[in-house]
Amino acid sequence: MLFNNSQRERIKELETPFYYYDLNLLEETLEQAKRAADKRGFHVHYALKANFNDRLLSVIQSKGFGADCVSGNEVQKAIDMGFAADMITFAGVGKSDKEIILSLQRGIFAFNVESIQEMEVINELAGKLGVIASVSLRINPNIDANTHHYITTGLDENKFGVPTSELESAASVIRQAQHVELVGLHFHVGSQITDMNVFKSLCVKVNEWKNWFEERGTQIKVLNVGGGLGVDYQQPDENPIPDFEAYFDIFDRFLERSAHQEVHFELGRALVAQSGSLITKVLYTKSGIKKHFLVVDAGMTELMRPALYQAYHKIEGVDTDEEPTVQYDVVGPICESSDCFGKEVPLPKSKRGDLIAIRTAGAYGEVMASRYNLRDEVRYVYSDVLNLSPSL
Ligand code: LLP
Predict the structure, then answer these.
(1) Are strands 340-347 and 43-47 parallel, antiparallel or unpaired?
(2) pTM for the whole thing?
(3) Which H or E run contains 35?
(4) Architecture of domain 5-19+274-382
(5) Contact 357, 298 (CB under 8 A)
(6) In this structure, CATH architecture of domain 24-273
(7) Which residue has the CA at smallest separation from atom 19 of ligand 1?
(8) Looking at the predicted complex, does its ipTM rise above 0.95?
(9) CATH 2.40.37.10 residue ranges for the chain
(10) Less CB within 10 Å around the terminal CB: N or C of the chain?
């Protein structure tokens, strides 16, 4: 259960729908991740794309994480939020000239370069500005991340990274590029990965390609293994914090690295997902011929994951301790049949005005919201603003 009795009373007074962020859980999650990484000398860049809410970012920055960005605006946001430029990386297959120039001017740590042509453009723009661009080469290692096909990124058929068949030419372009310095190799094979064997296979590929470069006389300072650690969407209360120890331990054991080599990670979801819930109110209940429906005031406009990826989010009543007795399809107000948060969700018998929590919505929730149907801007509430104690 997300809230105790007095918290429930206060929540009832608030205008719905809103994202509720548990800052205590966020801090605890960040601290556990940082401890497990620091112990092994690993560096973690937080992937802003998972959630760039100001309040969350300032907590993440204060805990000593770097920033992994995928647009010029994210780079600028990270800088505005106090992330040191030399702890910012910039990834993405389609960096525009404007975004590259901004990042060169800000002096970010590295570009994660996704194609040979991009390497040439960065070299040219850095030359014009009279600077040297630090780059990591993103290699597509052809690994199946065993996750939803929309969020797998490291297969030959995916658009990401340089295919291994082109590495010879990439290496020669880098050697000739006067305004580019290769600092690292970059990999990212997908998101919401819960099978640790995927990361083990990734280590094997990283070792292989690192050796390939070193055999050709190119020293690699940074091994960036991306993000992708999954969270428990089924049981957020039982597993509110991912097992960072087990995750980092895989890389500690299976990644070959020499003393001068740094290992970088780009975690998004694992750091923020469980700290966020979408709180929504039942507008109407109705029973069709085959179904019972709860029509709630949040829709795919606030949380798009179920409509977009058929993603599962646990749905529970906020202001009740009763046992589930009815199976409801929980649907939003948007004029699309895909605007459904869950089918046949067991819930206590509900009525107009009841509050519902859609859990594990802190990552890829608020940031993917839209104004479709001219909906309101997304609202959010932080645990400390309400003086609420943590849900743990
Ligand atoms: N690094 C790169 C290069 C990425 O593409 C991503 C995520 C990350 C790091 C962070 O991955 P994470 O640790 O959060 O798994 N909207 C989808 C997820 C898309 C992930 C895109 N890339 C969802 O709602 O599940």
Answers:
(1) unpaired
(2) 0.95
(3) helix 23-39
(4) Beta Barrel (2.40)
(5) no
(6) Alpha-Beta Barrel (3.20)
(7) 151
(8) yes
(9) 5-19+274-382
(10) C
